[in-house]
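Internal ticket #5521
Category: modeling
Description: The requester needs a full-assembly model to guide mutagenesis choices. All entity lines are attached below as received. Residue total reported by intake: 1334.
Assigned to: D.W.
Attached entities:
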Amino acid sequence: MPSSFDAIDVLAINSIRVLSIDAIEKAKSGHPGLPMGAAPMAYVLWRSFLQVDPSLPSWPNRDRFVLSPGHGSMLLYSLLHLSGYALSLDDLKAFRQIGSLTPGHPEFGLTPGVEATTGPLGQGAANAVGMAIAERYLSRYFNRPDAEIVNHHTYALVSDGDLMEGVAQEAASLAGQMKLGKLTYLYDSNDITLDGPTSLAFSVEDVSKRFESYGWHTIRVESGNTDLNAIHDALQTARSIKDRPSLILVKTTIGYGSPNKAGKSDAHGSPLGPEEAKLAKAQLNWTEKEPFSVPSAVKPKFQVIQDRGTELRNAWEQTLKRYRSNYPELAVQWDLCQSGKLPEGWLPDLNELSAPNSMATRKASGIALNAIADRVPWLLGGDADLSVSTNTALKNKGSFDGTTGQGRNIHYGVREHAMGAIANGIAYHGGLRTFTATFFCFSDYMKPSIRLAAMNHLPVTFVFTHDSIGVGEDGPTHQPVEHLAALRAMPNLIVARPADSRETGFFWELAVESQKTPVTLVLSRQNLPLIQGSSKDCLRGGYIVSREQSKPQIVLLATGSEVALALEVKKLLQSKNLDVRVVSMPSWGLFRQQSESYRSSILGPSSCFRTSIEAASPMGWKEWVGEQGIVIGIEQYGYSAPADEVYKKLGLAPAAIVDKILKSFPG
Amino acid sequence: MPSSFDAIDVLAINSIRVLSIDAIEKAKSGHPGLPMGAAPMAYVLWRSFLQVDPSLPSWPNRDRFVLSPGHGSMLLYSLLHLSGYALSLDDLKAFRQIGSLTPGHPEFGLTPGVEATTGPLGQGAANAVGMAIAERYLSRYFNRPDAEIVNHHTYALVSDGDLMEGVAQEAASLAGQMKLGKLTYLYDSNDITLDGPTSLAFSVEDVSKRFESYGWHTIRVESGNTDLNAIHDALQTARSIKDRPSLILVKTTIGYGSPNKAGKSDAHGSPLGPEEAKLAKAQLNWTEKEPFSVPSAVKPKFQVIQDRGTELRNAWEQTLKRYRSNYPELAVQWDLCQSGKLPEGWLPDLNELSAPNSMATRKASGIALNAIADRVPWLLGGDADLSVSTNTALKNKGSFDGTTGQGRNIHYGVREHAMGAIANGIAYHGGLRTFTATFFCFSDYMKPSIRLAAMNHLPVTFVFTHDSIGVGEDGPTHQPVEHLAALRAMPNLIVARPADSRETGFFWELAVESQKTPVTLVLSRQNLPLIQGSSKDCLRGGYIVSREQSKPQIVLLATGSEVALALEVKKLLQSKNLDVRVVSMPSWGLFRQQSESYRSSILGPSSCFRTSIEAASPMGWKEWVGEQGIVIGIEQYGYSAPADEVYKKLGLAPAAIVDKILKSFPG
């Protein structure tokens, strides 16, 4: 860890600043303030500490670096380019242009070296906690005394905005609880946010003291734009503190170098402008004439990163080789988990879920999840203080301990939003399968993180129980109505509301196998009967669970607990000599993926009268029932009372449904 | 403030406990642990401090009390009943039954004395911050040296779960920033949550230290179930500390009194059961044989609350009388704002919004909002560090200052979730109109609070700008796709996406006049042309902005920025001799409220071919275009690039839309 800095280091830092300025000027859009102010801390971290291999960004044992204030993306792109990642000057020149590797906010999976998609504030800081958890678990599971294949740090650069966000506060509190000693936040404390000085909204708070209250170690760097040694020493200290995460509060000047905009919110979110860019370069003693020019003198400074990375990775490859020969079975598991695969024989026998019992789908979920977890050692997850209710506790798997890395039940506490973002962090890290759990109503609390999981193809399983007015006595605050519609509208998210224990088991299999798509399981609190006709076809999104006698006059479409209700309705309609088909439609998204001919074979000919039955907002059902069909749903908030009474009160009793159907049925 | 407590006080506290036990036993459902553990602190607050008038729960100058952990509702119901509110023993016996005044979680507007609907954790704690802000603003605006008509405290009882939630952390940070000296949290610290001991997820954190880091004063009460004097002294001290909010951390035992469940998570969320209830009563030395019996000895103890309230309210009525005679104009304003009305002449001239200019609807919104704010002194609001972008700054109205109560711009900082919950608190308090503002994408961060606004009929205006892929370069993390669908599915929420500056003005008028329904304004970042045919009919939710020549063959339905796009598409279709109608449909919800004949007059006869155009998820549009019609929307996440290019890339350019229409058009 070289600690002496010279004029070339300053030039290297200015290279980051100037590349950022130039790219933002060219795009005529972007955020120069952060790259200019935070370049020194990022540079010192990358040059002196960060263990990555730019020629192999996916090296599993690399340190993770997350730029939580994603609007400062040019800081990261400049660093990636200068450090030798496959990100060219032309890529930087295409900043914020369609199809480029350099979008406005960093996007995971698109740009080599980007560890997480950031921009919505607070998320990256919480993702980093998930990465640190993943490292702990994997190191405990795989490392052996003679062959340590997992041992890395996780760094997040965080901003004032990040640390105001609740999701980051929840995550930091949990990181303190877990004593994640290999997690470090570099806090770019520049006293400026978009609207102006932080004195407007964030000046009374003593952030370091807050982090100490969480159980973090804290260090303060007073002159973050000039005192490289202080940054270096702080990072060194943070690495040496192993029993707690560390916050390094670095005082900086936003837009450092810009004579007229430095220290002002003007520097935050708009290009400096050609004139000011020129003045800034002059103030930084920048002598290159052309934009996007980097003095060759700085090359060796960044080469250090690649050299260190090559050396470390080579040593690691040697270790892995030894590991393969000493621990061949574990090595097989390592390869599987690193490629997102499951161990052979992972598929459990879930026959007990097909027993003709009445069972809440949350309970069936717990049985399926535990059976799978028994066979997949790299599956871990947790809940927001509700495992007793969500049935997601992994039996005999212990509570996750951040110090030892043991245990597979993550106790997130009542921190739903951080739970979502941390689960995303575990998925970003790689090597693990993970899930979260809470009540369906509180999917709202974590929606920003679910969105990022979907956008970034993170196969997290989000378990939501207590899925409807069936919650009963807890009343409207706890009874989801509009949540299914909200999640169904989200691109690349599988929303599944299984009808019984059997369907629940199949959806757990789908969830654990999913590679590129998060899955939400929406499960009942109340007992549901086994549907006689339910089958693995549920994974096609919609299928017939009860056929008509000869030619369907009425097709009932239902999900979850309402499939059993639809079967009762069918009985009543049959007694009126109507021929009725019942379709279980647990996932619109999967159903849409089927062929048109399959879909119409399920929905029935246009001559039949379709009715959807779902204890939720009617939004979107018209697509399936067609113009003549009717939608039976809920267009208000619920009531506090026993579930059956709430169903009745809201018109979801069999007789009332039959009445509605007969009123509209043209036949 | 009497401070000596005797055996009858203990009996009074046990009355709260036993009523709670009995109601939960009868309902066979509920949460006894909190009422049993927190009864002493709640009792001391109510008996010795709380300034309320049980005979007039709506007395404007009452102290506010919020039970943030709403699952402990029986604590509140017992207190309300015993203190003389219009909540009878029969009401308590109907706990958690349909139509009762005593639902599972407290519901605002239903039960006299319930100040906020709570249950989703963290919300109530944040609501209380809003109430304290409202008190500050109203006291500064209305009070005169000889006549102080606004001067009250705000108390929230908060739990471990509340304080883990990000929304409460954000709110507490802001309360510290604002130095809200008349806000006090009573923290029921019982070391137990639903899943077990807080050591699982919440034991490292030093909560008092955290609150000190926010700038709060903190006090600790060690024996919260027995030391009534300590609770009393702490509340006394909290009242005397005027320059900061106060946290009183009270150590308690959950389920205090229950011999086998006290101190265990078993006491949290299920009835004690008949046997244990009996044992608990014995341990509490309870001698009443019948359930729901209250010893008459405790009556005088609770009578104190009514007596104090009557006295205070009478004095206040005298003050108000003096106020009316000394400040007649202010008194008129007082009456108006207290009844949710607006001052005469509040409606501004918004003609400038009908000028044929290109203008972003966010900009038009800023003009309308400012014109209204100039005329409505009890309108205040703020943004999550984005006022420069959301155009919601109130010009020349100053920044809100929690010490003096001056200023009408609330700088929420990057705390969207607390912003929503605090705005709800302002609305719960009464006397003010309020709004919030952030980017539409971040509506997700505050969705739980929007839901509670809708459920509780709070007429908050939620402004969301940067409403679509039109955001451009900031890319997919900042480009809403599914958010319109998510909010449209929410009962009792008006979602409005105006097409131009003129429509925007009308929707601001609607929002400010709304009494029982929150309004979300979904506004563009980019400039939009004035739509020639736009008019006040936008408030009907859908209307024709461009008529057909004679008989419509094609009807284009669009919202927001896509109305102008639809007009371009119309031109192209006309050149192919097709007769086209264009409908602006800014609010599905308002459109649904119109008569069926109005709706079909707008949507056109079933013979015409309808196409919706909206840069968002297609979810739900089938309802409007019908079985034959087509929906043009976006079913993926966006791109980082200039807005026009993103539109083109996603198939929303006029020519591409025309192609799609012609491909499906049967004519």
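Resolution: model delivered.
Comment from assignee: DSSP finds 25 helices and 20 strands in chain A.
Ticket closed.
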